[in-house]
């Protein structure tokens, strides 16, 4: 990091120091239509107000359109090729095992959050699930905790204690809208008590996996968020909102899941052991999506078989693209050493699984909705203030900190 009197640079991008509290919100699984429908229903006055007093933009999330890569891109201001986090789950060659990519040792770049705290500014992070806490809080001298583990916070580990008492809410269920509400309630509490210079709030997409835009469940969720955003706005915060990815139905006309069980296909047509399918959407919380997403990586045992495996996969119904490692890394700005020999994307209404026997779909009590592909890339970029000199180039969700700090009027 470098610094001048009112500017600092992280991962080759320069930012102005905040002149008032800045709140960046990552609404997990949010596509613009969720907000549009809530506004149309009259339950989201804060979001409605942005048309006249704020700035309404759209941008692309990074690929794969999953939680971990995008949250880390937002807080580093850089793509996965820079920060190294390219999924929730990956094959670690050092351990020769498939592991969760939620350990800070996998990070290859510092965050804007940590850099700003090093400059003596107050920084706070509240995330819904604990899987993100160590990544978002890496190197951060400030407040960082998850709603999931709010009862366990300590000054030494989280920069704050007695969170439940301060927020006034119980520990919520991981599989509930309450988990995200706790994030917003904590954000309002921190703005009143600590008034951070920069606060990052990250929710969970439990509701978006279950409810389509405009449904009662979705509108209720966005109305809840809206009430807390009104409070943050009233306290003088500059608010920027984006998403880590969108969300789509992954079903046929009868509501049945459209699934390509890719490992089953490869084992049947090529023989066991020729290729191994890995699903980077996998994390400890798979009840609402069954570990099914629209992006997969494939590791081929013998390099000579790679073209044959790719051709077989590309011919399958529901598959949109198959890319080799180098092409995928270049196209999607991914670290080539952390993806498979092949990257596979399914069409908008289709998801990819490994073997049918490996997916528990009993938790899918409503038609499957998921993400991971290019069809979930478009996300909102919203601000409660007017921005000036917005770049005319393609915007990304990880531009949000630059837009908030450098372009706010």
Q: Can you walk through the features of this model?
A:
The protein has two domains: 2-247 and 376-406, Alkaline Phosphatase, subunit A (3-Layer(aba) Sandwich); 259-370, Gyrase A, domain 2, CATH 3.30.1360.110. It is 31% helix and 21% strand. The protein contains 15 helices and 20 strands. The strands form six sheets. Strands 5-20-11-4-10-8-9 form a seven-stranded mixed β-sheet, sandwiched between helices. Strands 14-15-17-16 form a four-stranded antiparallel β-sheet. Helix 6 links the parallel strand 8 (123-127) and strand 9 (143-146). Helix 1 packs across helix 11 (216-234) and helix 9 runs parallel beside helix 11. The radius of gyration is 21 Å and the shape is globular. The two termini are 25 Å apart. The model has no long low-confidence stretch (mean pLDDT 93).
The name of the CATH superfamily of the largest domain reads: Alkaline Phosphatase, subunit A
Mean pLDDT: 93
Total strands: the figure is 20
User: Main sheet?
Assistant: 7 strands, mixed
Tell the overall outline. Answer: globular
Helix count, DSSP H or I runs of 4 or more residues = 15
Topology:
Elements lengths: L1 E2 L3 E4 L2 E4 L5 E5 L5 H9 L4 H9 L1 E6 L6 H10 L3 H4 L5 E4 L4 E4 L11 H7 L4 E5 L5 H4 L6 E4 L8 H4 L4 H5 L10 H16 L4 E5 L3 H5 L5 H19 L3 E5 L5 E2 L9 E3 H9 L4 E4 L16 E6 L5 H9 L4 E6 H8 L9 E5 L4 E3 L15 E2 L7 E6 L16 H7 L3
Parallel strand pairs: 4-10, 4-11, 8-9, 8-10, 13-18
Antiparallel strand pairs: 1-2, 2-3, 5-20, 6-7, 11-20, 12-19, 14-15, 15-17, 16-17
Helix pairs in contact: 1-11, 9-11
């Amino acid at each position: 990091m470098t610094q001048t009197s009112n500017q600092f640079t992280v991962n080759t991008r320069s930012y102005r120091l905040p002149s008032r509290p800045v709140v960046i919100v990552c609404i997990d699984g949010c596509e613009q239509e969720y907000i549009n429908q809530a506004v149309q229903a009259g339950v989201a006055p804060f979001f409605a107000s942005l048309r006249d007093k704020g700035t309404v933009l759209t941008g692309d999330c990074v690929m794969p359109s999953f939680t971990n890569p995008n949250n880390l891109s937002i807080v580093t201001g850089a793509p996965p090729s820079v920060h190294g986090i390219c999924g929730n789950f990956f094959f670690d060659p050092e351990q020769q095992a498939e592991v969760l990519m939620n350990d800070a040792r996998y990070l290859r770049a510092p965050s804007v959050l940590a850099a700003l705290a090093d400059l003596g500014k107050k920084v706070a992070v509240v995330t819904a699930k604990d899987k993100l806490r160590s990544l978002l809080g890496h190197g951060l001298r400030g407040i960082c905790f998850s709603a999931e583990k709010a009862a366990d916070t300590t000054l030494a580990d989280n920069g704050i204690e007695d969170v439940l008492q301060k927020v006034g809410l119980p520990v919520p269920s991981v599989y509930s809208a309450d988990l995200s509400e706790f994030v917003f309630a904590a954000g309002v509490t921190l703005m009143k008590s600590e008034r951070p210079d920069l606060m990052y709030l990250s929710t969970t997409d439990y509701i978006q996996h279950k409810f389509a835009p405009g449904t009662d469940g979705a509108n209720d969720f966005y109305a809840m968020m809206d009430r807390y955003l009104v409070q943050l706005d009233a306290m003088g915060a500059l608010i920027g909102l984006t998403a880590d990815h969108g969300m789509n139905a992954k079903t046929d006309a009868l509501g049945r899941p459209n699934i390509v069980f890719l490992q089953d296909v490869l084992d049947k047509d090529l023989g066991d052991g020729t290729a191994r399918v890995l699903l980077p959407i996998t994390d400890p919380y798979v009840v609402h999506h069954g570990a099914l997403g629209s992006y997969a990586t494939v590791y081929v045992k013998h390099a000579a078989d790679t073209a044959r495996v790719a051709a077989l996969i590309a011919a399958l119904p529901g598959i949109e693209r198959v890319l080799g490692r180098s092409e995928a890394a270049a196209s999607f700005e991914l670290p080539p050493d952390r993806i498979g020999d092949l990257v596979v994307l399914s069409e908008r209404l289709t998801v990819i699984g490994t073997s049918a026997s490996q997916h528990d779909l009993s938790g899918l009590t409503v038609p499957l909705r998921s993400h991971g592909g290019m069809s979930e890339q478009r996300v909102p970029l919203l601000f409660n203030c007017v921005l000036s000199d917005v770049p005319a180039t393609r915007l990304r969700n990880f531009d949000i900190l630059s837009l908030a700090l450098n372009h706010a009027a």
